[in-house]
Amino acid sequence: MDRAGSSALSGGELYLGGGTAIQQACGFSDTADDMFDFLSTALGPHADLEKVRLYCYGSVDHYEWLVSCGVVIQPTMFEGRARMPATTDGLKWLGENARPYNEIAKPAPRGHRGPVPMSTGQLLMDTLVAHASSPGVSVEVDTRATSLIVEDGRVVGVNARRYGADESFRADSVVLTTGGFVDNEQMLADHAPSLLGHGKVSDGLDDGSGILMAQGRRRRHPPDVDDRSGLHRAARDGLPRDAGQLPGPSLHQRRRLSRTLQPRGTRPARPLLGDHRRGRSRGDHGHWGIHPSFAAETPEELAADLSIPASAFAATVASYNRDAVNGQDPMFHKDSRWLRPLTGGLAAFDPRLGFFPTSTTVPGTGFSGFTLGGLHTTPDGHVLSMTGERIPGLYAAGRASSGMHGERYISGTSLGDGTFFGRRAGRTAAAS
């Protein structure tokens, strides 16, 4: 077993709403209806709406449960654009105020995070593990579950290996919370081939082992992909396509950009930075110390460096600048607060090289992903067979299960989904 896994390496955001104490303290009113309207659209086609509805209407209670476990969230609002703020603010926007979502539901910020700068995943998981261990729950580390123990059709435990020796753990029920399968190349080829050849957002152990232990059980929908690559974090002001015709979407629209660029493989897509951004590209909140790969004084000169049509690129920059001066973005509808004309010198960087390229850096694809989707489960975590029957004694939650996600992902919904439906699975398993 692993004490924290990929969750400890994550940004640590929890997607919570419906009127949490933190939202109210920061001056925002929110309802479960507005949260559901947003998530049912933002999570994409094939989202499990029954689970989404339960999640939204149980969100305030879930927030209060997390607080009762010792999770601390500061009642302050981060108004910047960084994905992982270098502050201790407890609340941030996660796209709710971006078009088209702000036309579907009343916007409210729902990104809840711990009181440490940047990634809060380790703090969150340390807190939850400590709370789970406090009443005397035994935690077996350095132990790898290998198979389920089944008697008379009921799962009654797991077989495991520890330091080269076989072990068995008996239980009335088993809850699989073993993560996704982005580190299993064969499972990717079978279920998510579009992720092959790209980077992985993982602790290296998301090998699908829990799903494989329930082998032959129904997997619900194909997994989604993560939108959190260097390219998507950095595409703030403008992103030329190969033809030099398209200014880029805002940070909150990076999920749409992810869908566009993920199939590109090793073909370069280079985010464009204006002089106002170049001067602040090191260490300013969330800009990750970006080192441009190209720099030029004019769009035509930069286009030549990027090997794209100079006239089309210059026209794109000029059009974008005219609209930005007037606080408009008719193509992507970026919020006027973030619109800046691309003035002075221009720079671009190659996201395939990462944020801190060196002379020995080997280009990748600029895209990193993880899987969502797995064993088909009821809202209470029961794993279902191929015929839709509950498998006695077997439960799943988190990325080992189907969860509530459809074809898209919102930051914070993975930890939110895992903890919320993990609680439901645990309660159901204990009661049975």
Structure explained in plain terms:
This protein is α+β, with helices and mostly antiparallel strands. The protein has two domains: 285 residues, FAD/NAD(P)-binding domain (3-Layer(bba) Sandwich); 139 residues, Flavocytochrome C3, Chain A, domain 1 (Alpha-Beta Complex), CATH 3.90.700. It contains 14 helices and 15 strands. The strands form five sheets. A four-stranded mixed sheet has the order 1-4-3-2. A hairpin with a 2-residue loop joins strand 6 and strand 7. Helix 3 runs antiparallel to helix 4 and helix 12 crosses helix 13.
CATH class of the largest domain: Alpha Beta
Strand order of the largest sheet: 1-4-3-2
- Under CATH, the topology of the largest domain is which? FAD/NAD(P)-binding domain
State the total count of DSSP E strands.
Answer: 15
Topology (elements, then pairings):
Layout lengths: L5 H4 L4 E2 L5 H5 L6 H11 L6 H9 L1 H10 L8 E2 L12 E2 L18 E2 L8 H13 L10 E8 L2 E9 L2 E6 L3 E3 L8 H7 L7 E2 L8 H5 L16 H5 L19 H8 L10 E2 L1 H4 L15 E3 L2 H8 L3 H16 L20 E3 L19 E2 L12 E3 L5 E7 L16 H19 L1
Parallel strand pairs: 2-3, 8-15, 9-13
Antiparallel strand pairs: 1-4, 3-4, 5-6, 6-7, 10-12, 11-12, 14-15
Helix pairs in contact: 3-4, 12-13
Brief characterization of the structure:
The protein is 29% helix and 13% strand. The chain is α+β, with helices and mostly antiparallel strands and 432 residues long.
Keywords:
FAD/NAD(P)-binding domain; 432 residues; 13% strand; alpha+beta; 4-stranded mixed β-sheet; globular; Flavocytochrome C3, Chain A, domain 1; 14 helices
